Give the backbone structure.
Amino acid sequence: MLIGLIKKYFNNYVDTVVLPTDSKSLKLKKSSLIIVPLIIGPAALIWGVLYIFLGEYLSASIPLSYSVVSLFNLWHLYKTKNIILLQQIQMILVLFLPFFLMWSLGGFAAGSFVMLWAFFAPIAALMYDNTKTSLYWFYAFILLIVFSVNIDQALIENRTEFLPPIAIELFFLLNISAALSGVFLLIKYFINEKDKNANERLEKEHKALLLSTEKLKRANIKLKTLAHFDSLTGLPNRELFYDRLSQSIEKAIRHKNELALLFVDLDRFKQINDSLGHSLGDKVLQAVAARLKNCIRKEDSLARLGGDEFIILMDDLEKGGNASLLAQKIIDSLAEPIYIDEHTFYVTASIGISLYPQDDKDLHTLLRYADTAMYKAKKEGKNNFQFYASEMTDLAVDNVIMQANMHTALENGEFVVYYQPQINAETLQHIGMEALVRWEHPSMGLITPTRFLSLAEETGFIVSLDQWVMKRAMRQMVQWKKKGLNPGILALNLSVKQLHQKDFISLFKSILIETGCNAECLELEVTESQIMNHPEDAIAVLNKLRNMGIELAIDDFGTGYSSLSYLKRLPIGKLKIDKTFICGLPDDEEDVGIAKAVIALAKSLKLSVIAEGVETQEQRDFLVKHGCDNIQGYYYSKPLLAHEMEKMLLK
């Protein structure tokens, strides 16, 4: 009954003190330290009372003091759930109480009581040492306690005659050694706890340092963001944009590229702020910034200079005039209404464009020129764009008109196929022809390919145009064959956009079937620079075309950056020397060297070679002399309409 009550009390106390959130090691530590005062405390109380009855008041004071301290420890632990005070008091008692006992008792009874203290030292050892070592200590102290109790019992019953003096002295020394061992264990435990606490403190300080460092990093990032980005739109600010523009100019110098700056200023934006307030005006600016982001390319940079002014940097441009396409795209995008808080806004913009290196090469000058061009757009009635150079504005306007009219021009039959003969200069025999497209615009007149083909490439219209030219020229070839004429090989230009279409091969086969043209009569020309952009993909498609029996040629050879390793792998049969290397023959040393090198390269790779753009007798003679017999150019014939080409074939 009593044991059950004690067990219940002990379990309730442990459940109260040992928290569910405590770690496994902390639970073990609390349980172990609770056992010491719970068991020794009542034992010390009984012992002290016994000594009082025997008249040994000094001896009684020591166990009674411990019982009081144990009771206070248990109460403090129950209230605070903190074991630090309990640990420290237990260590002090174990250090000093055995010596007090031996001093007060001065005999064998002191030894047995010291053993009771020492018995609980392994419990402390459990909290820092390995389990096996703790068990060895536990078993050793159990044996010593049993031995000590038996000796004390013999002394009480006056049976000392059975014990020689040396045995009593050894027992006394054994008790002292056991007590010192317990003291050593607790000191070691205390040192370990101190080191552990120090490590925990260092770890907390380290974590705090890491947290402070992380906060500092976030603060630095925030400061950089505030320093380089516009707080309203999240766009780069003037300072960051200047830095990017400076880097782009250095890159353009190395790669000989062109840049464009577009200065975008919203028209009559002040009226929105004045009539509806700056809060609503800020939301309009955020909406405009989002639309501008959707208009630009990935490689472009957009920034807000302040107020209602934005600026765009177009990097890596082949032609600066192409900036007009983005300007028109922005104007079209802003034409859509903006809906904010039950308000509908129609926002327009005036855009000024300056070009590097045409207008200037200095960063600040380019910005000033773009700003000047923007004010020019304001004067022209707003909601338009203007280049700093007026002739560029005229050209851009033509580009916008051409872009708008391209699709309808194809439907209206405004595009016309011309054919330029290819002649063997040694035999003067007609060997083939190249199909060339021209645009007969109703108001702008005849537009040459140099004006509209790059625009068609950028807008993607080139795919539809190429397919139309192929069908038209192939049908014409079939008609000439039916009339008994020998037009030779028909050379068709193939754009890279069409080459990279997934369904190009099947589409080309369907054109062959539709027109009835023989694949062996065709030659597809691909420009060198376009092949080198994605050589592996190009090789795969060109191999399929070659397997269909179609001849392949590299057009404008010498203008790109062909790798000889790729050139060997390409399934081509002909190199076409670009006209830019023909015009200086035979006097220009660079043109002479390049022409000779291309001819020699073609021979070494067992490829045929043809020169385009040949206009004079001297150019023709030079090429024939150095092994290029196939000639295309005005020296023999300009591009001809189909009926003109037919007359030439009849001769």
User: Anything to note?
Assistant: The chain has 24 helices and 16 strands. The longest helix spans residues 165-228. Residues 547 and 560 are 26 Å apart (CA to CA). The domain at 413-650 is CATH 3.20.20.450 (TIM Barrel).
